[in-house]
Amino acid sequence: MKKFLSLLLLLSFCLSGCFGPKKTAGAGDGQTPFFWENANIYFLLTDRFANGDQTNDLNFNRTERAVKLRGFMGGDLKGITQKIEEGYFDKLGITALWFTPVVEQIHGPTDEGTGLTYGYHGYWAKDWTALDPNFGTEADLAKLVETAHQHGIRILLDVVINHTGPVTEQDPVWPSGWVRTGPACTYQGYETTTACTLVKNLPDIKTESSTNVGVPQLLKDKWKQEGRLDKEMAELDAFFKRTGYPRSPRYHIIKWLTDYIRKYGVDGYRVDTAKHTEESVWADLRREANLAFLDWKKANPKKVLDNNPFYMTGEVYGYGISGGRMYDFGDRKVDYFAHGMTSLINFEFKSDANNSYEAIFSKYSNLLHGPLKDQSVVNYLSSHDDGGPFDRQRMKPLEAATKLLLCPGASQVYYGDETSRPLEVNGAEGDANLRSFMNWDEVIRNSERNGFKINDVLSHWQKLGQFRKAHPAVGAGIHEQLASRPYLFKRTYQSGSFSDVVLVGLDLEKGRKDIPVRGVFEDGMKVKDYYSGQMLTVTGGRVTVESEFGIVLLGR
Question: Is the pLDDT of residue 171 over 80?
Answer without folding.
Answer: yes
